[in-house]
Every structure is written in C-alpha cells, then in structure tokens.
Amino acid sequence: MGVRYFSSLDAVAKAANVTRLTVYNQFGSRRGLLEAVFDDIARRGRLGRLDDAVDDPDPEKGLEMVVRIFCEFWDSDPAVARLHGAMAIDQEFAQALVARNERRLPLIGNVQTSSDDLARESIRKVAQLVRT
C-alpha cells in the first residue's frame, strides 16, 4: 500500500473496504495507523534482533550486528526504501518516521563499550547512519 493510501483515514477505509469508524476504532488516529504500519514493517524486517546486538558483550561485534541488521532491513522490501521519499510529500508521515528513528538512537548508544574514545566515536557515527 503506497503513501497515497495514508492521506486520510477515509482513504485507508476505502482501500480496506471498511468504514472510517472501523479504522478509527482500531487505530485512533492517522498517526496511530502510521505507527501500526511502521511496527509491522519493523517486525517483518526483523528489527527486534537489535536487542541481541546491543546486549553483545563484544562492542565491535555488537556494532557489526547493528549495521548488518539495518542493511538487511533496508534491503528487505522495496517499500522500505521509499519511506524517506514519502517524507518529502507528507509532513505527518515525516514527523512519525523521524520520531521513530529518534526513539531508536538510544538503543544503539547502549551497545556495550569500553571507555575507549574510538569506540564511542564509532557508536556516534553508526547512530548518525541509522538516522539518515
């Protein structure tokens, strides 16, 4: 389903062949619907594996896992790659996606690290990559 289908709850209801009230009762708002769609994309893209990456006692291995997980995620479905393009045409969509990415950043900062400045700088760079 393309971004154009998310232009309103009415459009989603029509595409799903249900009433607007049904969509509203299920998701509460367009933002709630977007969050549910993002949750489904994350689940199908197996982003839940990030917990294993940040819990790995080896910081290098943990960061490698984070990068691999995100590369696999962005390659998992052509629709995922179009998310950033959709941000340009839909402000609410953009706000929801940016907020979601911002919530993910602290997770990456939790990768087990030594007190090494290089390790901290590497984590900062990975976090920037994830954000873009």
TrEMBL record:
Domain of life (superkingdom): Bacteria
GO MF terms, alphabetically ordered: DNA binding
UniProt domain HTH tetR-type: residue ranges: 1-45
Keywords: DNA-binding
SUPFAM superfamilies according to UniProt: Homeodomain-like
Pfam families: TetR_N
Regions recorded as binding DNA: 8-27
Stored InterPro entries: Homeodomain-like_sf, HTH_TetR
Protein name: TetR family transcriptional regulator
Organism: Bradyrhizobium niftali
Lineage, opening ranks: Bacteria, Pseudomonadati, Pseudomonadota, Alphaproteobacteria, Hyphomicrobiales
